[in-house]
Design goal:
Mean pLDDT: 95
Distance between the termini: 30 Å
Largest sheet: 7 strands, mixed
Low-confidence stretches: none
Order of helices and strands: EEHEHEHEHHHHHEEH
Structural class: alpha/beta
Radius of gyration: 17 Å
Length: 252
């Protein structure tokens, strides 16, 4: 499967994986900062952004998404392997890649999947509303109040998100063809085996996260970091902090 991606910079390869309902452009606030020291590959997961969805004969679990990403990266012939980082769903997929022995290190920001038990299914009413509001989104996202309304659940300070980026975020969330299937598959399971990963693992937890909480038990081999003052998707809240986290997590 070919996946849409952007690639820039030089150095050790760092693969970036976006949250559920977003696309590779969610990393734009930090990409310039990273590209000075890393070969950065930001990928659209299957069913999001410009990447096709997985064959629906199989369940698009985070593990299946990781298999698709690994196969795509194999095609890029990255001789020295790659580090991987992700946010939320992307963090879970990053952990799956590390657990499969495919990554040199993993940095997971507010990773999904570390909940104590599978979650109940949830209807996508917010996505329905976002699709219905599409004609009004350009005007809505041009105002600070509109961006707070649209992004307040994921970004601590939505006023820091430029209007065009805010519009892209909302539309990516509303229109992703893989959203429903991936969300259902994700909520029906959980990530296990964190203690079995043999490469460096960094878990970063957003202080003002409204969606994911830090689990009560984390293996002592895992490095834990708290990101102060940021929301679930922290790239616009604190781009320098996030870039530093990713560079440190992917250092050899």
């Amino acid at each position: 499967m070919h996946l849409a991606y952007d690639r820039r910079g030089a150095g050790a390869t760092l693969v970036l994986l976006h949250p559920l309902g977003a696309d590779r452009h969610v990393w734009s606030p930090v990409s310039d900062r990273l590209a000075g020291e890393r070969d950065v590959i930001a990928v659209d997961l299957p069913g999001f952004g410009d990447s096709p969805a997985l064959d629906m004969n199989g369940r698009p679990t985070p593990a299946a998404l990781a298999d698709a990403v690994a196969a795509f990266l194999d095609g890029l012939e990255l001789a020295d392997g790659y580090h991987v980082a992700g946010n939320s769903l992307g963090g879970w997929v990053a952990l799956e890649l590390a657990a499969a022995g495919r990554a040199r290190s993993v940095t997971a920001i507010a990773p999904a999947g570390l909940w104590a038990e599978p979650l109940a299914r949830k209807r996508g009413l917010t996505r329905i509303l976002a699709r219905a509001a599409d004609p009004f989104l350009p005007a809505l996202t041009r105002t600070a109040a509109g961006r707070r309304l649209a992004l307040g659940g994921t970004v601590a300070d939505p006023s820091r998100v430029p209007p065009l980026d805010a519009l892209r975020l909302v539309r990516a969330y509303a229109t992703a063809p893989g959203f429903e299937a991936v969300n259902a598959a994700m909520r029906a399971t959980r990530f296990t085996g964190l203690e079995l990963i043999r490469v460096p693992v960094t878990l970063a937890w957003a202080e003002r996260d409204r969606l994911v909480t830090r689990p009560a038990r984390i293996p002592s081999t895992v490095r834990n970091v708290e990101l102060p003052g940021v929301g679930h998707v922290p790239m616009w809240d604190a781009p320098d902090l996030v870039a530093s986290l990713l560079l440190e997590g992917s250092s050899d």
